[in-house]
Amino acid sequence: MNVDLLGNQLTPVEVRLLAVYDELKALCSEDDLPPLVQANIRSALAVMHNIVNGLALEYEHLVDLGV
Amino acid sequence: MAGESPYWNPKTETLSRERLERLQVEKLRRQCEWAATRSPWYRKRFVEAGIDPASVRSLRDLRRLPVLTREDWMESQFKYPPYGEIPTIPPDGAVRVHTTSGTTGRGPLRALDSRKDWTWIAEMWCYAIWGCGVRPADTAYIAFGYGSFIGFWGLHYAMEKVGVLNVPGGAQTTEARVLQIVDFGATVVAATPTYALRLAQEAARLGVDLRNGPVERLILSGEPAGSIPQTKALIEDEWGAKAFDTAGMTEIGTIMVFECDRQPGGTHIIEDHMIEEVLDPATLEPVPYGERGERVVTSFGRGTIPLLRYRTGDLVCRVPASRCTCGRRFDLYEGGILGRVDDMKLVRGTNVYPRAIEAIVREFPEVEEFQTVITHEGIRDEITLRVELRPEWDVSRWDALSSDLHGRLAHAFEGLNFRVKRAEAGELPRFELKAKRTVDLREGAVEVASK
Fold this sequence. Notes:
By secondary structure, chain A is mainly alpha-helical.
């Protein structure tokens, strides 16, 4: 994805933020991580969602990832 | 460096109306698809209404969606306890549950939140506190009980997110709270408008000079009084600080409006995260800018409990964003939440609004607390204003004061004859959360409290 929900081209910072968000989502799907990693990744993803949602980069719910 | 932008989210707070609505429609369609897929309650409603969520392509399409009422929610909880069929997840997928304050006597609504939803709840408060000038160097005192009622919980986490030193003021007496505010040198205090006045009264009793203290801002929520000019002016005078109104509801989980640092006489709607309709409560047809109607909210925040076209019962008057000079493009509710659609009392053919009574009473600084009591005596209704005076006030001037109050109320309410009676010191109830100053003792009267 190279545009936001408004059709704007993503800025370089927005591209990086979205990459962090996608990486956290991917890590949530890893099931052989210790509890401290699993829990803190989910907490981090919840906070990261505020950024991508607030900047209109992505809008979705994350309950299937436990977030 | 953080702290330079006057907006928490400059990208969306300054969007043009056209762009803002495009964003709303994009989120609306996704929220409808989510609700119809994952919530048993919404799935049935979409099928019954014959609506394909993917067909939602404009704000006009919003009006095709059925409304959700508190009664719908309660009925669903009753049939499928304890949470009903609206949630999209079972309780083990949530991390918190909060309830409404339950002041209506109909039992509380129960709202589940996931991790993501809960951080969003704090995020909405960030729009408000940043918008009224709170910054990381501040120290905030949250005068709130920290119970199952959602209240200022979201504000607490918002303060932490911004980087404010946060003093949680739960489980305290009012005296202890005043002393902690002084002890910690709080620059921001959060409370209901009623409790802000109560704290000021207690400070006066303790000999604490709030006016010359460090508190610069008060964050008010929980009652319409935060936007009643006379009440707000009194609070600001008592504290020597600026007061900023906000309003929220448990059903959303957070606030949906806030007053910015320009204090434009209204509250901005957080429109990148919600769609607020203002409808005629009888016909459910939209009312134009500048006319009063009922708030109907669609929130994009919670995934656990999607809220599509929820009838709030709040009375509001929407005006364009241009009414404020702050540069935000979010529309405003002029005068904040004006009251409840159903809190008007009919007394001898005259419409009596609690907000209008409070606006008059607050012009009299001699009054410490008041209560309106409506009774049926013989063949007619009577309305009595019970007034408790400040302890330092000279009671020999009571006759003149009661006469003034009587005249002002009669003038405001079509000549209605209010009995004005003096209550003894400490006789009237005090409130920490939502004040309930109107008591209707007429047979068959239904007590309506704010949510």
